[in-house]
Fold these 4 entries.
Entry 1:
Amino acid sequence: MSVKGFMRGTENADAPPVLVVILHGWRSSPEKVGDVVRASREALGRDDGGRRHRVDTYVPLLPYHRALSTKRAVDIVREIVRAIDGLVAEEPAYERIILAGHSMGATIARRVFLVAAGNPHGFRTEDHFRDERPHAWAAKVERIVLLAAFNRGWQISPRLSWKYSIGLNICGLLGHLAPKRGWVPTIFDIRLGAPFMVQTRLHWLAYRRQCLPAGAGNGNDASLPAANRPAATLPEPILIQLIGSRDDLISPFDQVDIAVDGNSSGNRTYFLIQFNETDHMSAIHFTGSGSEAAVASARKQRFVHALTDTREDLAKIASDPDLLIDEIDKPDETVEQTVFVIHGIRDDGFWTHRVAEKVRALTRRPTAFRAWTPTYGYFAMLPFILPWIRRQKVEWFMDQYVGAVAQYPRSKFHYVGHSNGTYLAARGLQDYPACVFDHVLFAGSVVRCSYDWLSLVENRRVARMLNVVASADWVVALLPKSLERFKKFDLGGAGFDGFDQAGPQAPPHPAIAQREFVQGSHGAGIAEGQWENIARFVVHGHVPADNAPGFVRLQTRWLKALSSTRAVLWAGAAIAGLLVPAAIISSRFDELLCLSRSERFCLPPLASLTSHEDVVRVIVLVLYLLALKFFITRF
């Protein structure tokens, strides 16, 4: 066969064939997964009944063997699916197919199966996969074996080894700062909260929940979201995760897998198996010398079990999901509706809990309504301007979203956002096709006025939205609105000027509403006087009347006039002006820091300061820098 990376089995040449697809990890190669290939051939060549098989392997060299490869993960998945199409077309006699992968390759392997199996009913996938139809070979995939898989994606943390920390920091920096999308490293698609990772996790949830029979978890009833309803008989491979006990990149606690059927005692399809004394890279090493030989041999045995054991035997060596109860919340199928309440910049988000109380008080069944009120901490205005910082907050939120979908499988989801909280939802709906909300309420919005709500409503990704505009929102008027004229900034003044599609010049739409003007500044829309209105909209979809208490007819005139100027340029000049005093105060500070001496960057002892003036300069400069830090991190 002409597919590069394919090797036809030489033993048992006339026996029924089995295809094993093995995908290597980041900065790895087919040669480095050689132990996995050889173990697969040995294990699958003969089954427990003594039947012989010819084991064919497909181990392609993937673009991300180069650390800075810029091939998109969705393109890699599609190419692998096409390659397997070709292999199966030439050898239709394959009795079964096994997908395996290490590290990043494991994540790709999972998505390869999902794409081949077809999109679940109601699931919204990326444009790359929208026209994909089920591939016949997906029904032959017997099991998926993931070694040290990135289940949620990588993230930078102090626990990382220096090697991974340096490499991932460089790739993360390139990904965030790349001027063009084509310059983004492939590994950037596998980070925590990245669109590819979130879509893969949501895709797996939707698919696996459709596989569950009626009464086995989700039930076959109309109360379920469309993407969670069981469909016709679907391929249902066993999924085995093998993870090292010393792996500093991978957490064993991924709610997506355990939440579906990890606690089921019946036809279990998910197993988490641990490799002892194993880190991220050694998970694929099945040979060794000295003291490592026994450990490597034990790894090989567990891998062989993962390839060949029955469900009953796998359960004997797998971790008991019930023992993970402290780390992972079990799915709650009694919850019918969930509302995210997300705060904005310069806010710790304490009000979100008060709104959640109002929402629950308004529902007929409070126990069936949940509020999800996470916080990303205090977020100052100046860091908010930086695109990569905003993107990280979106990724944080989408990881939260997946957790909520996993925990509440029957729930519809609503959203209440203020300031940066509006940006998180708007960007999430834009970049993550599987993100769906029922009722969406924005207050103090920093989203562009031209945001396309109509398409979201028509595609049933948003059922109803309400934008609350304040009368004197100087925060939105002077910063996000000023940035709206720059196309590279995805910020805007919808919290001050309103959304175009909800304005008086747009055709009225029953699902897109806007209320002008709640009296007050940036926080007026989520002030205590509006909590009741927020709760009514979330629970019942009720929009406040034009003459509702707390609303006025006009905005502050001087602010409206000022917002039409280039205020952002004035703000930039003001910030630059803050640095001028530092230059004046520190006109001799280079001498004080020994820059003119052989000992560089050493603070001199006070005795070396030549005059009281020098001491004063040092004190004033330190105080000034502290004040500047306070301004940057708090404003």
Entry 2:
Amino acid sequence: MSFKERFFRLVVNHRKLVIGIFLVAVVFFGLSKQFVKVNYDMNDYLPDNTSSTVSLNVMEEEFGSGIPNARVMITNVTVPEALTMKEQLGNIEGVTDVTWLDDAVDLTIPLETLNHELVEHYYKNNAALYSVTISEDRRIDSVNQIRNLIGQDNAMTGSAVNTATATQNTTKEIGRIVAIAVPFTFLILILTTTSWFEPILFMASIGIAIILNAGSNIFFGEISFVTNAAGNILQLAVSLDYSVFLLHRFMEIREKVDDPKEAMIEALCKSTNSILSSGLTTVIGFLALVIMKFQIGPDLGYALAKGIVLSLITVFVLTPVLTLYCYRLVDKTKHKSLLPKFDHFGVFVSKGMVLMAVLFAIVMVPSYLGSIHNNFYYGSSNIFGNDTQLGKDTAKIEGTFGKSNSYVLMVPKGDFATEKKLSDEVKKIPQVNSVLSYVDNAGAEIPTEFIDDDTISKLISKKYSRLIITAKTDYEGDESFRVVEELRKIANFYYPDTYYLAGESISTYDLMDTITSDNVLVNLIAIGAVFLVLLISMRSISLPFILVLAIETAVWFNFLLSYFVGNPLFYIGYLIISSVQLGATVDYAILLSNRYMEFRESFHKKESIQKTIAAVTVSILTSGTAMTVMGFLLGNMTSNGVLRQLGMLLGKGTLCSIVIVLFVLPGLLYLFDKPIQKTTKGITLLNDKSKNVLEVITYVDEK
């Protein structure tokens, strides 16, 4: 008796113990889920040694606050009213700093005599624009209090507002998505199964696995908003077919074996290799994200890989037990298949498979080239579109004051002459609107002893002088990144390796450097690891190459569609989908190729293709349709741009994989049948001559 059989006998013989263990685990992790913290700030996932992260830490330590992370505009106010509003904003708990016109000029002097351009940066058309710094740990409360203070007629924007809005909106939206996704999945299962009770059995198993995974994230302490939003949906879509495959094999064996327990043990033994192979490739695809320096990758990779492992444990331990308790209900609720047989579809595919393989070869290289030439967003400044409250507020502020972006430059204090040269050089950058610093506002010649403490504390600390630079650029983009490079160049000239530069654009620039450097390595590891697993499990050199190439081309084609549309992609979504689509949909290619090799032992190439397509289409459509629906639901029901795009890419990518697996892969298997035979160990396929001899023998016997 093999180890597999001994283990599965142990499971089915101790059904009550299994149910008890899972019940305790579900209660514990179901409660634990409520205490898992979710982080919505992408910049928090930059490596600790990134220059922008180090600069922020130094600023927090020296000045007790970070960079300005919100812009608040109040309309229809006089200067005295604007000063009163500044004081009220500063009194909100969590607001550590508010900067306005009075910090840049002396308001005892008539505005008409002051620098017109500088004044209009803060006060224009009776509207006041404040730069506000909000503490990270108070973002939601502070943003809500600011909104209550200024009302709906005024506007606010910035990274702190982005994060607070994402935190509140996404939680509600994910709840609605799940509420719709579950009935949709039930509908898919009803259409693709032959018992009214089977979908309940499937959903109970996968639902328990999802609860265990979501609750066990408490061991990580904190997860990203990407993991929180996409993790459950991906786990449901990806691992659904494991339970389907096991239960279908059990029902098939029950037609030959009377004892349900023995039938289940045999089903488990026969399906273990296929399920484990599919699960392992998916786990590896997700674990490839772990090597990313941008920490959202490891955050998502570990959580998703853990989810698939828990799904596999549930399928091999809990699902057999639930099935043995409920198989009579499955029998009593049997019905005719609601889907047609796919025999004719198999014939249809076989007629056009060579042409599809040729078209595949033609579009493969252009798909790759198009996929790497998309335009990208790297930070969080474009997460919310123009149709959202935040998008409308941003448009209001930019409509009055134009674009504005804050940078903070810290240099060793004491050398006011050099600081003045630095400030003058910074002002020469065309996009720079203003520089707020001690040497610009108090004057390099005035000793610090003659300046009030409030002004001093904003601009000079124990070790550093601070220059607050405002530029008329977006938070990210070519122009913004050129300003970052120019600021670093100037600062390094006057203060070689002793300056610190911080700001949302600085963090986004470092984010771009970090995640683009991750791309090649993540993809190579994902492809190489999946190839290795297939090489070992299939004992073939050519089959893994064909399967990985087919799914990778589906990934490239997915991004090619975005390239043609011309909408920029969030790079984090691009990177995640590159691994997730490969790891999740290569299962379809494995299933089809395995069945093809089985049929080739008894039938010639074309007939094997027809029978394979007829046999696997329902299974592929079950899992593929679920994943597609999950993706499009996420893409259409969230206001968070990163999650919306991640969902749309997942939905489109799954459709691309389904089309290539069902229409292109058969042609590749057909054309490379001979090389597959020569490079695959331990197979004996029926060749055409053998088929002809068998047909003659059969004909003579019949006569």
Entry 3:
Amino acid sequence: MKKIITSLLLLFVTSVLFAQQSTGYQLLECKDHIPLRLIESSTSKYKKDLAKLKELEQSKKERKLLSKFSLESHFVLDKLLQSGAVLFNDDVSNYLNTIAQKVLANESQELKNKVKVYTLRSAYVNAFATERGDIFVTLGLLARLENESQLAFILSHEISHVQEKHTIKSVLEGARVDKKGARKNRARTAVSDKRVLSKSMYAKELELEADSLAVGRYVNAGYAEENIISVFELLKTSQQPYSKSPFDFSELEAGSYSIPSKYKTFKVDSLEAVDENEDDAGHTHPNIGKRKEQVKRILGRKIVANTANAIAVNKAFDNAILKAKMELPMLYLHNGQASKCIYIAQALLKESPNNKYLKKCIAKALYIEAKFQNDKDYREIVLVDEVTGNIQQVYNLMEEMDDKETLALAMNYTWRQHDAWSDDKELAYMAKDITYELLRYTDGLKEFTEVDTAKGMYWKKAMIDYKDNKDLLAYFKESEKRYAAYKSRKPPKKKRKNQKALGINKVVVINPQYLQMDMRHGNTVRFVTSEAGRYRVADIVKLAAEKSGLDCKVLDVKNLKKGQIDEFNDLRFLNEWFSEQTDFGELNITPGYNQERVSEIAKKYGTKHFLWTGVISAQQVNRSWITVPLSLFFPPAIPFTTYAAIKPRYHMFYYSILFNVETGAYETLGYDYFKRKDSDALMKAHIYDSFNQIKQKSKKKK
């Protein structure tokens, strides 16, 4: 009876949560304020570490090694935190931090203050910790969890890495192994292999130690012992989607349009799981079997658990996991994984059958697949035989359908959603654009509204139920005009490089960049100089805007204040939009995957024009020294050849790309390369030139 009541309660909670998501879903965003650790410069954090290193009783070589590690880790981690891929102060991240503090209840206040958990917007199954105390848990991992106990053990494991300084230990051990191997023989491959194995063995020791410490912390927090082993079982299928249910093709069918049985009856391969006793030589983690056995031995010591927290129904957990699952379709879209998007969105629709967000995700996935196939240069690279389980049904469908079949499916599904939500701007644009695709690559609308279809030509009935639809007919006429204009277009007149007058009064500049590299030492990034350079470029942008009379707003994550959380979120969506446009090149994928949000941002700042600009500076190896010996035959040339030999060789690359975020149209205003060192004067000249082109109106001949 107790199990029945528990099951009913769980079902009730889940149904309530899905009811809240019944017509839509709001993507997770950062909330409240920007944490101070994100605002503080990476250089400042690095300098604090240097001061601490001086107090440690370590050799000069170890301090140098740790100094380099601190430099690189701070800048890399801060870039991740500021990228928009990381969530903070949102509902899911707050819940994660609540559980982290629960398992830290008996730890020192110093460790409690140090640990901060973030949600990583990634569909991959992973969790990792840093030396600074930052712990990242992916949405892909959260979507797989079955109860709070599993989450508690995962966080306990990552906290152990932080507490025991495993990252630092791994760095020092790696250097020790490299040094020892180098002394023996620098040329022998066998020695190199031994070094890899030695590092691997040490890494696995640290992982087992983290598991061991996590068990005690987990049990002391009051979680059920038996739930630990289930965590390892989840990892065995981490490469597959969390859902294992058969794909319901009825979601893609309606009215006169149906998908042939040959696609529905595809025989899928059994879901493959990782062999828990696989050979882990060379891996950084021990195999799952070893980890399970160690945990069982520890639990065999009769550790008594306070099971007060091991409750079956947990609304906070269910809410966090549901949101993680709802995020996945959009993440798959951004990863170029249309089939996974369709499969997971359809699985979620079983619980929320009228969810607009999920249906739009499927529409966008089909829309992009149709565009890919028509263009020929793009295609989802994962093949049906590279996955196992029921998701193969979708991969097979996408792989086997030809261009017209895919276009028919995308056309039918997109128009059904547009018909259901006629006021949705994203669906309206997709409906228009997919109609234009039909006109460009087929014989027109008539081909898709035929009753009599030959064998295998089922797709011809895709739009038969819409043949008299006024909106469709209007869109089709509009597409005919658009295509006629496209075919009759004249080639643009040749203009002098970078000379364009656009007549735009206001722009928003997004994260002006500066990167300095030392190519003499393996393309090493000069992190401190690069960060200082970013502040310099941002100042130059503001000055150039003032001089050119251009109304310019600079959105730079490096200069945001604690309370500018809205601007931080704006940067995330704008940079995602920019990434989509650059990834697809001339394919012109507009609307973007989150176009509605981007359009709101454009309205907020009073302009559709956003500029991405930056400078890359590099110092190369100077090979002019080879001329010095030759100058001995002509002594007067010695001073000149010597100077040329010792003078550093610099290169500078400048770019400036302006986008209309409503239409996807862009202008490449600056794209220049110089064999010289960057300077404020050079950067000012080019940034001012770009701004002047934006502001200046073209002079039309009378």
Entry 4:
Amino acid sequence: MFDDLVGFTWIDTTVLVVYMLGVLLAGLWFSKQELKGKDFFKGDGTVPWYVTCVSIYATLLSPISFLALAGNSYAGSWILWFAQLGMIIAIPLTIKYFLPVYAKLDIDTAYHYLEIRFGSTFLRVLGALMFIIYQLGRMSIVMYLPCLALAKIADINVDLLILLMGGVAIIYSCSGGLKAVLWTDFIQGVILIGGVAITLIYIITELDGGLSDITYSLTEGGRFLADTEEWVDWGNLLGTSIMLTLIGGGFSTFCSYISSQDIVQRFTTTTDIKKLNKMTIGNGILSIVSASIFYLIGTALYLYYNQNPDLITEDIAGRRDLVFAYFVTYQVPVGITGLILAALFAASQSTLSTGINSIATSWVLDIQCKLTPQMDAKKQTRIGQWVSFGVGAFAIVVAMWLARSDVKSAYETFNAFVGLALGALAGIFVVGAFTHRTTWISVLVGFGVAMLLVLYIKYYVPSVNFWAYSIITIITTLVVSLIVTKIQSIAGYNYEAPEGSTYATAKDYAQKASNE
């Protein structure tokens, strides 16, 4: 199909292989210090805040963003860019209301907080199981998407690519724990940022009018937002609109920040509020800037292929998730192609290795240690390594299956899943931080009602946009929890949250730290 194009050459293959070997060696290098127990799962406290900051960025910015965000703007709309802009909602809420609580309590995992706040081991285990299910799905999606794209375009076996990517991530995740993952994430994040920046600059130089073509297209050309996209849909506030995408995207990210173990795990590496604030704000800046670059790339690709229609085939032009990878493979100079595709693999591997390590951490500290409380640090580490291997292998198998399925928009599918699973879970965290008398029974009822409600909406009320799921589940969990707590109080059962487990009792800790 691409016989007249240069494509993926042996030089690019060499660059990609060198990158994979480099990541593996870097991971093994940072694994040379044997860490056991909580140091294996939380790090040894020596990783700088900026490394953790880039690690959060690399964790959140998956290949779903790398390919699908550019694909959405290529298709003619920047509306999902406003979901990335939702960081301006998520970051202040997280910094003000949750980081002081996590720092004061010095939690081991996200779900350790639930046990402390509500005095319930059951909630801790439930939260961990919810996260593990969510993360297994996410890992599989972010592994299959870039491998499928590269396999289709460069005529490489997709199973081989999935095995290569998954195998490397499993090795250094099992060997060095969180410290190795953080440092390799940092390296991969730098490669990722460099790769997309190089791509954008190159496309601009190839356009007839350069940067002016893009600015015209986004203003008078109508490629920023479609005519049908409204700022606010007053007839259906939960329908598709720019404002809902901004707010819903912000709350979805907020859910990840406060209740997703892969992110909260980075917050547990230090109790220094100033460092926590720096890494969170830095992550937000990186995320918004890089998302803007991805959308600029998508618009530039649309212009490029309109100016050079003979350089793209009809089947690729109709697959927006593949257009970016196609351009990188066939229109970028030899050698640079391998570098940019290495950035694509970097996005996948950072998410994959983080997923492996965070699942292992949550399983061992939240579940296994509750089953066998006297387990020593050496055994904890060994179990964590075996769990890492098992979940990595499982994700590889599921990714191979997904590569043979038909997922039209991986980005939208994933975000709908996040809103469904993490939204209801995050609601428990919100109730815990903002109320002081709610009980574990009340939040469990609220969680159940929220899950049932959003499932009903998903399948029977299609007019509600998936960006509203997180908002609905958080509000529902909060309201139902307060009602049930009131009923319990009338019945004579009262509960008081432990000191420091709510924002009201932890804010003094943050204030003291900021004054030092």
